[in-house]
Amino acid sequence: MDCKARVTKSGAILLGSNYTIDGYHKRPIRVVTHAHSDHTKGLGRSARESLLVIATPYTFKFLDVLGYRVPLEKRVELPYGGSMEFDGERVRLLKARHIAGSAQVLVETAEGSYGYTSDFKMPGTPPLKGLDCLVVDATYGSPRLQRRWGEWDALAALMEIIDRFIGEGPVWIYGYHGKLQEVMAQLRLRGVRLEFMADSRTVALARIASEFYGVDVEPLRIYSGDNIDYSAIVFAHMSKVKSYSRRPGIHVRLTGWELRAPAAWAGDRLINVAFSDHATFREIVSYVEEAKPRLVLIDGVRSTDAWFTAKYVEKVLGIPATVSPSQ
Ligand SMILES: [Zn+2]
Q: How many A from CA of 77 to the centre of ligand 1?
């Protein structure tokens, strides 16, 4: 089937003739689905060379805090459901539950309809239905990566850890941008009133995410490195695990790659909590089943076991599927 959708070797998702999504490609319009670094590659070059850069208002706010420079005159902020037409091709951003501001992308042209799920988890991500071609993210693309519990179990495990260890030192929670802020909101929703501390960037993102989720994350204070409060929860980027690990208290890493249990020891005072921002393998399959596209392309750049997912979709759902770029 002729399909105007593909993933380039560098991870740009090309939909229609005009749009490049989450990676640089020589095209008039760049779309950013969310502010994670594997989706903002080449954004500087896109910002210079493309006519327009499209993202949700919250993704632009995140990008600003993270230091990406997109000239105001090139920005097109599309809220969920919002659309824009360029050269006879209409682009629309739709909700994806992943991090604050995350979107799926739909492009409709005279020749066909094309979509990209971007990173997502279920429930909370309405499938893009009945498209000609759907590009699917399969971060956990096979049953060997299937978590056997829900995110509620992981959150419950995290709250138990906080209850048990707070006071022996702070509880340190490590994760990527977006996930930290989501967990802050989730803890507040469940009645955790302890003070949150984080570096200034994480705090700025938390205040944006707080507005996005409609959840007050205060009290929230900037952690400058010396004023350790034993009754606070300190949130830090995953890259800090090593350098902070000797500081007093229990250290918690938020990672969807922990497959043993919702919480499992990973070191002397280090615990992995299996909180993920990506669909499990079964959730990916049920998304595709509900979406029922004519052709599925599994993103071969960002997925694990993409080939397996494609074969599974073909055999079990009877929907033609392949990996893009082809390996
Ligand atoms: Zn992501």
A: 19
Chosen CATH of 5-144+278-324 out of 3.90.1150.10, 3.60.15.10, 3.30.70.1660, 3.40.50.300: 3.60.15.10
- Compute the distance from residue 36 Cα to the ligand 1 centre, in Å: 5
Q: How many H-runs (helices) and E-runs (strands) does the chain carry?
A: 8, 20
To the question of domain 151-273 being in CATH 3.30.70, the answer is no
State in Å: Cα 108 to ligand 1 middle. 24
Supply the mean pLDDT for the chain: 96
Q: Residue 276 C-alpha to ligand 1 middle, in angstroms?
A: 10
Query: How much distance in Å is there from the Cα of 50 to the middle of ligand 1?
Result: 23
Q: Which residue pairs from 116-119 have beta carbons closer than 8 angstroms and sit at least 24 positions apart in sequence?
A: 116/5, 116/13, 116/15, 116/21, 116/22, 116/33, 117/287, 118/21, 118/22, 118/33, 118/34, 118/39, 119/33, 119/34, 119/36, 119/39, 119/277, 119/278, 119/302
Q: How far is the CA of 98 from the centre of ligand 1 (A)?
A: 7
Per-residue pLDDT tens digits for 122-138: 999 999 999 999 999 99
